[in-house]
Amino acid sequence: MMRQRWAPMLITIGALCAACSRQCAQQSEPTKPAKQPPEIHDIVLEHADRYRYDEKSTAVELAGDVVLRHEDGTLRCAKIVFNTKTKQGQASGNPTFADPRHTVSGEVLFIDFKARVAGFRGGVKVVRWPKEQQSGASGSAASAGQSDNKQGEKEKRLAEYEKEKTVITAEEVQYYYREKRVVAKGKVKAEQEKRTTWADEATYTDADELLIVKGNVRLQTSEGESFQCSKATVSLRENWIEAEGPITSRFRVSEEE
Q1: What is the pLDDT confidence band of residue 254, given thresholds at 50, 70 and 90?
Q2: 33 within domain boundaries
Q3: pTM beyond 0.85, yes or no
């Protein structure tokens, strides 16, 4: 007969024995805290209203305001079923996956905890949040401006960029959350404060902050300038664009110019 259990719990992958050993060691040393933070490879269940485990299929089903953590990301959904052996699962009910720099949402989520990839389908939205300002950053930018005007302008532009957020929408997105890499396909649209880009597919990596778009690429600025091409690389951080043909464009010229 299937047994059901519910309690705030920690689902560990390949670390159960190590966790038990740590608890025994902690009990023999009362000066140390009894509870240790989870290992980085652990899947942590922070909340669910219902929990069901099928020993035969090794499947876990969680439902009702589900909150799971893996590495630095948090998964929220109404329901998820995943296999404890393959570490793969499917989530539904407004699933979202968020880490310090990105929030990804869609209609359905297929997640592979082992590969560290969250695949969303249907009305997918990726939000890349601005970086937190580092202490002393404004002071260093001011010093650079006094010594070198060009360097000061660059620092100012980068500081403005750090305050912007980038929103990418698509029909399908694969988010590699350890690499912080986004692969979007189908009616892709990337929006920033002063620029919007449309394409058939796009790839974005947080390490170099480059957005590479392919297929029916169209870019438009807030000033009304635009161009079309087959492929483009957009530096979100340094504000430059490289395009591959065939290329057509439109540049606005005011009467004063």
Answers
A1: low
A2: no
A3: no
